[in-house]
Amino acid sequence: MDPFDIYTARPDGSGVRRLTRFGVYTAEGVLSPDGRKIVFTSLKGGDLDIYVMNIDRSGLKQLTHQLGYDGGPWWSPDGKRIVYRAYHPETPTEIATYKDLLAQRLVRPNKMDLWIMNADGSDQRQITHLGAASFGPSWTADGKRIIFASNHHTDPKLGNFDLFLINPDGTGLEQVTTAPTFDGFPMFSPDGRKLVWASNRHDANPHETNVFIADWVN
Fold first, then answer.
1. Which of 107, 68, 116 is nearest to 91 (CA)?
2. Predicted local confidence at residue 117, as pLDDT
3. Where in the sequence is the domain holding 158, given as residue range(s)?
4. Residue 179 sits in a domain of what CATH number?
5. Which residues of the chain have pLDDT under 70?
6. How far is residue 62's CA from residue 68's CA, in Å, rounded to a whole number?
7. Which terminus of the chain, N or C, has less C-beta within 10 A?
8. Residue 69's closest CA among 96, 87, 89?
């Protein structure tokens, strides 16, 4: 995990501004709906945790503290909650392996589940228990459901990830895509009428990833 930092820029690429200077992996940043805060993952504290700060670089706060890789945070449309994916080693062997890899700036999160918390880091709750690699969560435009990618329904060696919906309380799991390849990183348009995601389907070369967009009909 090479050192990265968080930057902002205008939509046309101008006005590039560096927000962090931690000297370690600092990435996966997402602006809050009102544009005033940014949530991100960083190694600055020695573990991969989620942080939030104001866009003017003030008010830095660590939100997660449990050993493991907490990442991929995404604000709810109203800015009151954050969904993220996490791998928390539990057994002595898992903990030792995680720490050894992290010391080499490596991770191997084969099993990740979705968690949700309030924007201030309170009330952290695990909402999936799928025992597989579930990641890339974001919210539906109305904030009522969460969409994410997972391989829990297939042999992980096949590299087949599909998109799923779930309620914030962990109920109502529903499969969205069924292509026998990789589908991931889904997100909705602000009006909820379009879904965009990355996929290996129709690849011209092996493992080629392209961006797809589709109409969303409830």
1. 68
2. 98
3. 25-215
4. 2.120.10.30
5. none
6. 14
7. C
8. 87
